[in-house]
């Protein structure tokens, strides 16, 4: 439908420079330039390296997305950008680029929340999100259970990790096993050939008096690391496949158990899973199994849309336009700790329309 908003989204919260273009719920382009290889030798993302890589990749990635989508920048109805949460310097590159393009083109600017974007992206795959939506968001920086009545304005946290994020635990265990960075995909691969019940690792915060929707992976991480150290100290080989499978099972068991419980408690009959860890094959399979048993419909985007990308930002931006949410002001700033409840950032000044007129005059006179 031609009257659906055409929006370009820019994502630079971590190590992926993502530029996506959507028309309403339709994905037109999803260009990603990753600096992950530059961080691998450090075993984690180095913020300064990420910021520089974003700067270098930004313009070419925007040009590639426009070319892939077959649209002209002047046709866009808006430009959306991740305003937070994320690495401050990395976010700043995306926000600055989005402002420059929006200002030069005379288009509205939408600074949006990275976490809400991870949820909204599923509209590109499975159509409009049901309202309310229960979402399990699991990435390198976050693990949360979120209930959203309206993804553009109302996201309520039910629970979150009290220590490590799920993806962080995957990355740290992969490091202990010398499997490289990022750890999720490689542990996922090894686990396929291992026995998930070989080693009984602890399930954090699952006792009767523990908070129902919060997560903890720090105890699990220590337990796995100690188990590996003990093997090495005894001069024995570490069974990488069994350790991977048993560790992964402990993580996804807790994630799916708590998510299904939240759906039941809140009377929500479907579950959305997003964020980089949602690419995990065992998480997808176990969630499917448990949701089916509980009569809950599961929605998980394809793996490429689960990890950081620009299409998710464009998807949320398009929803902002469709629902007439106010655009961000030109003094929009990156907020590295933007709370999940702030789905978008209106900014401080309210002369948006005026500035647009000025921008247009400057461009076209
Ligand atoms: O959402 P994302 O791309 O970036 C953040 O916002 O953090 O998530 C990255 C995280 C990393 O920790 C990575 O190890 C994890 O997602 N990840 C996975 C898989 N693919 C990526 N974790 C488990 N299994 C996977 N297949
Ligand atoms: Zn993310």
Automatic annotation (TrEMBL):
Fe cation binds at residues 114, 118, 308. The keyword Cytoplasm applies. Keywords: Acyltransferase, Cytoplasm, Iron, Metal-binding, Transferase, tRNA processing. It is an enzyme of class 2 (transferase). One of its GO terms (cellular component) is cytoplasm. It catalyses: L-threonylcarbamoyladenylate + adenosine(37) in tRNA = N(6)-L-threonylcarbamoyladenosine(37) in tRNA + AMP + H(+). It comes from the Bacteria. One of its GO terms (biological process) is tRNA threonylcarbamoyladenosine modification. Gene3D superfamilies: 3.30.420.40. Residues 27-314 form the Gcp-like domain. Its EC number is 2.3.1.234. GO terms for molecular function: iron ion binding; tRNA N(6)-L-threonylcarbamoyladenine synthase activity. Its cofactor is Fe(2+). Binds 1 Fe(2+) ion per subunit. Substrate binds at residues 137-141, 171, 184, 188, 280. Belongs to the KAE1 / TsaD family. Required for the formation of a threonylcarbamoyl group on adenosine at position 37 (t(6)A37) in tRNAs that read codons beginning with adenine. Is involved in the transfer of the threonylcarbamoyl moiety of threonylcarbamoyl-AMP (TC-AMP) to the N6 group of A37, together with TsaE and TsaB. TsaD likely plays a direct catalytic role in this reaction. This is tRNA N6-adenosine threonylcarbamoyltransferase.
């Amino acid at each position: 439908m031609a009257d659906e908003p055409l929006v370009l989204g820019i994502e630079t919260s971590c190590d992926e420079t993502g530029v996506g273009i959507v028309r309403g719920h339709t994905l037109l382009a999803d260009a990603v330039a990753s600096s992950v290889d530059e961080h691998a030798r450090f075993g984690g993302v180095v913020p300064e390296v990420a910021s520089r890589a974003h700067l270098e990749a930004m313009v070419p990635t925007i040009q590639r997305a426009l070319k892939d989508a077959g649209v002209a920048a002047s046709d866009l109805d808006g430009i959306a950008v991740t305003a937070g949460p994320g690495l401050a310097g990395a976010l700043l590159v995306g926000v600055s680029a989005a402002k420059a393009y929006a200002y030069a083109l005379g288009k509205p600017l939408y600074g949006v929340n990275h976490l809400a974007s991870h949820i909204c992206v599923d509209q590109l795959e499975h159509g409009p999100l049901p309202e309310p939506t229960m979402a399990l968001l699991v990435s390198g920086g976050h693990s949360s259970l979120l209930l959203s009545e309206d993804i553009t304005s109302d996201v309520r946290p039910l629970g979150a990790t009290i220590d490590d994020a799920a993806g962080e635990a995957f990355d740290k265990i992969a490091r202990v096993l010398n499997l490289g960075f990022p750890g999720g995909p490689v542990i996922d691969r090894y686990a396929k050939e291992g026995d998930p019940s070989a080693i009984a690792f602890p399930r954090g915060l699952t006792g009767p008096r523990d908070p129902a929707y919060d997560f903890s992976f720090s105890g699990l991480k220590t337990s796995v690391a100690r188990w590996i150290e003990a093997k090495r100290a005894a001069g024995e080989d570490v069974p990488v496949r069994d350790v991977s499978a048993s560790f992964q099972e402990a993580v996804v068991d807790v994630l799916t158990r708590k998510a299904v419980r939240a759906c039941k408690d809140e009377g929500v009959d479907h579950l959305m899973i997003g964020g980089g860890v949602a690419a995990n094959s065992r998480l997808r399979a176990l969630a499917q199994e448990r949701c089916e048993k509980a009569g809950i419909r599961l929605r998980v985007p394809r793996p490429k849309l689960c990890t950081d990308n620009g299409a998710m930002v464009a998807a949320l931006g398009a929803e902002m336009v469709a629902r007439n949410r106010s655009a961000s002001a030109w003094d929009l700033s990156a907020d590295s700790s933007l709370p999940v409840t702030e789905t978008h950032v209106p900014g401080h000044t309210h002369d948006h329309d005026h500035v647009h007129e000025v921008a247009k005059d400057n461009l076209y006179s």
